[in-house]
Amino acid sequence: MTHTTSQSDSSWLAGEELDAARQRLPILYVDALPVRVDGQGVVTAVGLLLRVTGEGTITRALVSGRVLYHERVRSALLRHLEKDLGPLALPKVPLAPQPFTVAEYFPTPGVTPFHDPRQHAVSLAYVVPVEGDCAPQQDALELTWFTPEEARDQRLLAEMTGGQGALLRMGLAHVGV
Amino acid sequence: MTHTTSQSDSSWLAGEELDAARQRLPILYVDALPVRVDGQGVVTAVGLLLRVTGEGTITRALVSGRVLYHERVRSALLRHLEKDLGPLALPKVPLAPQPFTVAEYFPTPGVTPFHDPRQHAVSLAYVVPVEGDCAPQQDALELTWFTPEEARDQRLLAEMTGGQGALLRMGLAHVGV
Amino acid sequence: MTHTTSQSDSSWLAGEELDAARQRLPILYVDALPVRVDGQGVVTAVGLLLRVTGEGTITRALVSGRVLYHERVRSALLRHLEKDLGPLALPKVPLAPQPFTVAEYFPTPGVTPFHDPRQHAVSLAYVVPVEGDCAPQQDALELTWFTPEEARDQRLLAEMTGGQGALLRMGLAHVGV
Amino acid sequence: MTHTTSQSDSSWLAGEELDAARQRLPILYVDALPVRVDGQGVVTAVGLLLRVTGEGTITRALVSGRVLYHERVRSALLRHLEKDLGPLALPKVPLAPQPFTVAEYFPTPGVTPFHDPRQHAVSLAYVVPVEGDCAPQQDALELTWFTPEEARDQRLLAEMTGGQGALLRMGLAHVGV
Predict the structure, then answer these.
(1) Yes or no, beta carbons of A101 and D99 under 8 Å apart
(2) For A28-104, where are the alpha helices, taking DSSP H only?
(3) Would you call D176 and C97 a contact, using CB atoms and an 8 Å cutoff?
(4) Do D127 and C75 touch (CB under 8 A)?
(5) Contact state of B170 with D176 under an 8 Å Cβ cutoff
(6) CA separation, residue C147 to residues B64, C46, C59, D75 (Å)
(7) Is residue D3 situated within a structural domain?
(8) What is the mean pLDDT of residues B136-163?
(9) Core-most of A10, C10, D7, D174, by most CB within 10 Å?
(10) Does the predicted model carry a pTM greater than 0.90?
(11) pLDDT of the residue at A165
């Protein structure tokens, strides 16, 4: 996965300073798995973004981004969900700060299932129901909903990079599907 | 806590058979802590029922009840929330089956923090946001909303029986307040 | 999965009474995924039992069994681990009662990923490190250790019944492998 | 809480650079609640460090520290436990990366229950059984074991700073005591 830095970050940390920090510190991220649920709370669909990477490859991705200085984890979750899914998505941020897992993206492949060539990112991962209309924004081309069965398909998982396919599987396992 | 059996149970298990089973098997329950949350998922209030026990004592209680034969845990949660809070409460049942804790109510006091003189009940406990209008039903006199600070008050906790005060504290700890 | 009843249950509940209860109530179970861990707590191997079912089929299985009347969940976990892995297995029962998931085995296939033709069993599932020597006991023919990669193999998962393959995958996802 | 930086950090990030990053980025921490458990996994005692802060005040504290660049969360946990409790403590790092909560220490008091005047620290919190002999090291004067009941005492909690009293209560709630 190539984690992207949105422009709104610039007021917090200039690009070159962030680049320096990325060589020295683990950077805190959140990963969100947007889902549709039925009236009993059963997950019926999982939303994946279609992105074009810097190298021009097309990948499927979770909603993901950095937690800023003096920003709460739940605010970062909301901000990235709104940034990627649009202002009408109505995400329901989890009540509890306990994530379903912690994904450790290492710059060196193979240390964990997660890899990010640019940095050591440690990401708190949550499953987030969205109830409104989603319209992909910015560098996301499209948001596609998959049934839990489709989302476990090997070909789909292969379109995800940096270990996000593993993270998707962990999220689905957590919600029992 | 004296767990109550609603009349709708009768089609599943006649009263005397259930009484016999209660002397022989742990009985599966759910406990729900109804909460109000703000737009960022922060718990702003906790709902407690005011009940009159069989002995005429007034107690504060969580939403609680048995899981029936061939009933899913999430359906039991919804059923008991609707039974106690009314049909317009709009509870959001958790996506994941993982409870925040498992409360083991023993007929013998002191084995665990939880006690139920009538039976050995094992209860899966969840925090459940409710978004609609709550109207206490059946044997609940009233539903009162407390701020998380008020809900930690020793006098309030003392009005709860069977260890539900401890369970309330565990639920609040889980959501980070 | 055909959950088995050990003889030691007989003092708690006579066979025919239990059979009657099984038609009327959800029965509380525990499922344990025995694992070996390295010094950093990373799961290096998963233990699966080889069992012969009543029909003579050979299956792979998790450690699984009923919670008895007046028995704590953690005591039930220990009892079933010792029954299946022998007295020298030295299992480390989890500190927290929170299971990684709750598996709902329905007598009707397809309601959940879990199925038990004999009963409606609701099982609290835990990953349990075992540090000692394991010697399969009673109706278990063998205990085999698999690496996490081997344990995700489709052929291995196909040898598990009642949805325990799904439960194994959920447990592995929970520990991040 | 005044999170301390050990000298071993210096090879990773020079002091002034870290100070600069601390004004710009959330810094990733781990908090560990060391516990003694009995043979059934029940927590029987909680270990708290006695520390002298830079201002000369004596406080009780959890084991806590920074996650370094290219360090796994579980390695950071082990490193800080060994640093504070000595090399013979034999901590059992949790198998699952899922923390019991995430403590967000803000430089501004009141945003969350957690406060750190020097930085915005986001800490993954775990309960960790230790089986060996503990000998406080470095800037810890003493390690004292308290029963879970003693650990909930208001006076003891008042000796903890930065919200670690709240974190201790959350950890105890998680393990069901």
Answers:
(1) no
(2) 73-85
(3) yes
(4) no
(5) yes
(6) 41, 6, 18, 21
(7) no
(8) 90
(9) D174
(10) yes
(11) 96
Report the relative pairing of strands B27-37 and B63-66 from DSSP bridges. Answer: antiparallel
Are D71 and A28 in contact (CB < 8 Å)? no
Q: Which two tokens stand for residue A88?
A: 């009408």
Scanning A62-101 for CB atoms below 8 A from C yields: 101
Average pLDDT over every residue of B145-153? 95
User: What number is the average pLDDT over the span B55-77?
Assistant: 94
**Range of the structural domain that residue D34 is part of:** 11-174
Interatomic CA distance for residues B145 and B133, integer angstroms: 12
DSSP 8-state code for residue C97: S
Report residue C18's pLDDT band, with 50, 70 and 90 as the boundaries.
Answer: confident
Torsion over CA: C150, C155, C160, C161 (sign)? positive
- Tens-digit pLDDT profile for residues B9-56: 434 556 777 788 888 999 999 999 999 999 999 999 999 999 887 788
User: Which chains would you list as touching B if contact means 3+ CB atom pairs under 8 Å?
Assistant: A, C, D
Reference B111, options B120, B98, B99; nearest CA is B120
Q: Is residue B72 part of a domain?
A: yes
Q: How far apart are CA B133 and CA B136, in angstroms?
A: 10
Pairing of strands A58-61, A114-115: unpaired
DSSP D59-114: EEE-EEEEPPTT--HHHHHHHHHHHHH-TT--B---SSS--SEEEEEESSTTSSSE
Residues lower than pLDDT 50 in chain D: 1-2, 4-11
Tell me the chain A residues in contact with residue B43 when contact means C-beta distances shorter than 8 Å.
95
Judge whether B174 is closer than 8 Å to chain A, CB to CB.
yes
Residue at D2 is within a domain:
no
pLDDT recorded at residue B13:
59
Q: Which of B43, B74, B176 sits opposite A41 (nearest CB)?
A: B74
Q: What's the CA gap between B9 and D151, in Å, rounded?
A: 42
Does pLDDT of A2 surpass 50? Answer: no
pLDDT in tens, B69-122: 999 999 999 999 999 999 999 999 999 999 999 999 999 999 999 999 999 999
Residue B34 is predicted with a pLDDT of: 98
**Exposure of B16 in the CB half-sphere (CA atoms within 13 A):** 0
Burial, B133: exposed, middle or buried (Cβ in 10 Å; 0-12, 13-18, 19+)?
Answer: exposed
Q: Within 10 A of D83 (CB to CB), how many other CB atoms are there?
A: 17
C97, B100: Cβ pair inside 8 Å?
Answer: no
| Average pLDDT of chain A, as a whole number | 90
Tokens of D31: 């908090």
CATH code: domain of residue A127: 3.90.79.10
Contact A101 C169 (CB under 8 A): no
Please tell me the distance from the alpha carbon of residue D124 to that of residue B144, in angstroms, as a whole number: 34
Phi–psi pair at D151, nearest 5 degrees: -70, -15
> Does C53 have pLDDT greater than 60?
yes
Tell me how many domains chain A contains. Answer: 1
CA distance A133 to chain D (A): 30
> C15 to chain D, minimum CA–CA distance in Å?
29
Tell me, rounded to whole angstroms, the distance of Cα C99 from its chain centroid.
13
What does the alpha-carbon distance between residue D45 and residue D35 come to, in Å, rounded to a whole number?
6
CA distance B87 to chain C (A): 25
B61/D121 Cα distance (integer angstroms): 37
C to D CB pairs, distance under 8 Å: 55
User: From start to end of chain B, where are the E strands?
Assistant: 27-37, 43-52, 58-61, 63-66, 101-106, 114-115, 121-129, 140-146
Closest Cα in chain A to B78: A40
CA distances (Å), A88 to each of A35, A44, A50, A132, A137, in order? 15, 20, 19, 6, 12
pLDDT at A13: 59
Question: Does residue B36 lie in a domain region?
Answer: yes
